[in-house]
Amino acid sequence: QVQLQESGPGLVKPSQTLSLTCTVSGGSITTNYYYWSWIRQPPGKGLEWIGNIDSSGSTAYSPSLKSRISISRDTSKNQFTLQLSSVTPEDTAVYYCARDTPGYSDLRGVDYWGQGTQVTVSS
Fold first, then answer.
1. Per the CB 3.0–4.6 Å rule, which of 38, 54, 95, 112 could disulfide with 99?
2. Type and span of the H or E element at 33
3. Are 4 and 98 contacting, i.e. CB atoms less than 8 angstroms apart?
4. Cα(58)–Cα(50) distance, integer angstroms
């Protein structure tokens, strides 16, 4: 059973960097085939894919967010992280980490989700 747990500050000031960590148990982030994704849901809106990192450390980012995103990992801790810079109130959302599988253009490939963490951007 794969489990994912998000952690990080729940409040970030505008222009600063949002930083979240996902701790994975029950599966290795270096195992081939899977992608490790960040997804968010703003209030009253649908799920939005942010980006992912694969088993070798290669990343892919949403085109609309790419310039502000950095996803990295710490294999010794079986963790991967999200950094979203220059945040605005539009970045307020519940942020999820998830395990994803290839072959889908939407979020149907997600087979495990974290519980999500609320991040509010406010001064």
1. 112
2. none
3. yes
4. 14
Q: pLDDT digit string (tens) for 15-57?
A: 999 999 999 999 999 999 999 999 999 999 999 999 999 999 9
Which tokens in the block code for residue 2? 């794969």
* End-to-end CA, the chain: 39
Residue 98 near residue 113, CB atoms below 8 Å: yes
Rounded to the nearest angstrom, the gap between the alpha carbon of residue 56 and the centroid of all alpha carbons in its chain is 17
Q: How far is CA 75 from the centre of its chain?
A: 16
> Could you give the CA distance from residue 46 to residue 2 in angstroms, rounded to a whole number?
24
Average model confidence (pLDDT) across the chain: 96
Helix, strand, coil % (nearest 5) of the chain? 5, 50, 45
